[in-house]
TrEMBL record:
Membrane topology term: Single-pass membrane protein
Domain of life of the organism encoding this protein: Eukaryota
Name under which the protein is recorded: Non-specific serine/threonine protein kinase
Record's GO cellular component terms: membrane
SUPFAM superfamilies: L domain-like
Length: 105
């Protein structure tokens, strides 16, 4: 099981299409640099202990199809308005967090 914070250096893997770090003991913030991983199609960070807000920059992931941040319990704040840009998104799971507001259209 992985623990500690998510390394920002993962965003430098420019050909990465799927990142699955779910079901670990990861803590801290979601690195905003993930918003620069433009080939990313699946981002799975559920069932960790991540905290803070979801970075607005993730709305730049135009190739994203699946996004799962379920069960982090310490993720809070509004769902980024930039998520309205994720036109190819077919799966979004933000359940079991402390997020607020509405999903952008």
């Amino acid at each position: 099981m992985l623990s500690g914070s998510i390394p920002r250096s993962l965003s430098r893997l420019t050909n990465l299409t799927t990142l699955d770090l779910s079901g670990n003991l990861l803590t801290g913030l979601i690195p905003p640099e993930f918003g620069d991983s433009l080939k990313l199609q699946g981002l799975y960070l559920g069932k960790n202990q991540l905290s803070g807000t979801i970075p607005e920059r993730l709305g730049r992931l135009s190739s994203l199809v699946k996004l799962n941040f379920t069960s982090n319990k310490n993720l809070s704040g509004p769902v980024p308005t930039s998520f309205g840009n994720l036109k190819g998104l077919t799966h979004l799971d933000l359940s079991s967090n402390e997020l607020s507001g509405e999903l952008p259209s």
